[in-house]
Amino acid sequence: xxxxxxxxxxxxxxxxxxxxxxxxxxxxxxxxxxxxxxxxxxxxxxxxxxxxxxxxxxxxxxxxxxxxxxxxxxxxxxxxxxxxxxxxxxxxxxxxxxxxxxxxxxxxxxxxxxxxxxxxxxxxxxxxxxxxxxxxxxxxxxxxxxxxxxxxxxxxxxxxxxxxxxxxxxxxxxxxxxxxxxxxxxxxxxxxxxxxxxxxxxxxxxxxxxxxxxxxxxxxxxxxxxxxxxxxxxxxxxxxxxxxxxxxxxxxxxxxxxxxxxxxxxxxxxxxxxxxxxxxxxxxxxxxxxxxxxxxxxxxxxxxxxxxxxxxxxxxxxxxxxxxxxxxxxxxxxxxxxxxxxxxxxxx
Amino acid sequence: xxxxxxxxxxxxxxxxxxxxxxxxxxxxxxxxxxxxxxxxxxxxxxxxxxxxxxxxxxxxxxxxxxxxxxxxxxxxxxxxxxxxxxxxxxxxxxxxxxxxxxxxxxxxxxxxxxxxxxxxxxxxxxxxxxxxxxxxxxxxxxxxxxxxxxxxxxxxxxxxxxxxxxxxxxxxxxxxxxxxxxxxxxxxxxxxxxxxxxxxxxxxxxxxxxxxxxxxxxxxxxxxxxxxxxxxxxxxxxxxxxxxxxxxxxxxxxxxxxxxxxxxxxxxxxxxxxxxxxxxxxxxxxxxxxxxxxxxxxxxxxxxxxxxxxxxxxxxxxxxxxxxxxxxxxxxxxxxxxxxxxxxxxxxxxxxxxxxxxxxxxxxxxxxxxxxxxxxxx
Lengths: 348, 378
Fold this sequence. Notes:
The complex is a heterodimer.
Chain A: H1 27-41, H2 44-47, E1 61-69, E2 75-76, E3 79-80, H3 81-94, E4 99-110, H4 115-132, E5 136-144, E6 152-162, E7 178-181, H5 187-194, H6 213-222, E8 228-230, H7 236-248, E9 251-255, H8 263-272, E10 286-289, H9 294-302, E11 311-317, E12 324-327, E13 333-335
Chain B: H1 10-23, E1 30-36, H2 37-45, E2 56-63, H3 65-68, H4 71-83, E3 87-91, H5 105-110, E4 115-118, H6 121-130, E5 136-142, H7 147-159, E6 165-171, H8 174-184, E7 194-197, H9 200-205, H10 212-217, E8 221-223, H11 228-243, E9 249-251, H12 263-272, E10 273-275, E11 278-281, E12 285-288, E13 292-294, H13 303-306, H14 322-326, H15 358-366
Parallel strand pairs in B: 1-2, 1-7, 3-4, 3-5, 5-6, 7-8, 8-9
Antiparallel strand pairs in B: 10-13, 11-12
Helix pairs in contact in B: 1-11, 2-15, 6-7, 7-12
């Protein structure tokens, strides 16, 4: 019955590559969408086949966030650009204390990109979205000429809903608040770096890329008075703390000794002259809550697998200059500044 | 982390801080220059100055290879990349160093120059092997420490008969710069009571080349490792020399530095390089016998000869105090541009670029800090 099939010759997902026709709007694009994107990302809203997804939101305030992913390498220990594109946006939505509902994804493909790699990426994206219970309900594909992209860029957008009584924002930190981190820092940046082609560097460190919305759900249910949540991605913990201090008009005093870092990550940073405080994370969060709620929040975080190594790393203080001061493990004291320039090129 | 944590032990740091505070004579000043950017970085990163008594001050020396590279050399490299269309390979720090006209290698790259960031000379050799039809130039920079790897790369290029790789040599020599600093020190310049001697450089050249410092300039030297406890122990050794009115070269970094240094590396350097009659250092001017060029037998691999470029007079940024800061005469906070027009995001001077540069270290770790309180003796 071959003549009845819409696309008589199947897409070659083993040897085939992306060409300009896959972005032209014609039959080749339709085939790519059907045989690759819909095949993996299958869900009822996507199956409507429209240029948009139609749904009724649940009651509550909606949040929306978007994130472009341009990483190199595309595949790294512990994940790939597909899983990262899901985790990254889910986490940005969750950092409002929200429950993520739906995702949208836009792909920019470079001419010549292997379809086999694209299939691996989309399959991983679908698996990740399934595990997180948040479907990709609408999307878009474009193709750029060879040399004008870097394999694949993925932009994801997410919407979520914030429970009643939760007010989380980067400008709500107050003197006396406690600063917590959900686990060991720096894993993602070092995992990515270990796979850069020009670093002959072998390590067992896996990216921490993970969705944090379930951890956040437990946290806001138990401690609804949380003031700030943010995931320390690019620029690492140091940059995130500076952002929050600046937004809230406060300073912070942190203790280096309290910040969890794996010895392998510490060793890699030592070798490369990096500071783990500035290395990217993709499955960690910073939480700021009233000081007297800190121990309760810490216990809730530690009870969840994605927060089992959580720690209280410092407190919010009054400081008109919005500095992050750190008591070093050595016993000295220093300012922890924003990341200047870039510590590693293109990490997320 | 084993073999690292031991050198960052808080308890030992407190003991050393206590000893320094107890032994430092409150009736005198201890103005100690740490020559190397590595020391500057450790002092700031670990808050070492904070642990010192108020009459002991670290003066930051010129030992940051990116900081002392004159603008003309960056202009020259940029011209090679743009006019001769070579593939220019360079270490990351150099990318943001300001060149004439507020340009930089990073901006030249954005304009289409083929500039690659590398982590080692092995990357350079790989890039050259992978692109035999393309001329590749390595922007070689650094003190004695980074020189042997360049020498090995030059020998490898020769052995493999590579015709598409050449070297833009900017390797500089520590003793000459140290001599200049000391010769210009005094009431009109920087006042120095002692020198924390280079760490990694000394593993190569040994401790002997510093003998002239006590002999000719009556200034004690203690060669110090780059870990914070190394810096503190070496500081205590300098305090003791000054208190006892001794003046000699001492070696705190004995686990890595010997008197004669690494003879094999020295032989390699002597084979591949020759000493330039003079070389320009940012802040210090033209210093005699202070830098290396490719030896005559390797001259065919010299990028300066292969790709001659004509650059105009370099245009320094007005008001930038990097030259005085590199001589230790001024502090970063003395510069009008510091923190206003010049920040790590938008460096106007070279000292703001590298994390070893005094301005960047001040900015990142200590800016606006009130004077350090007196360390508590335990």
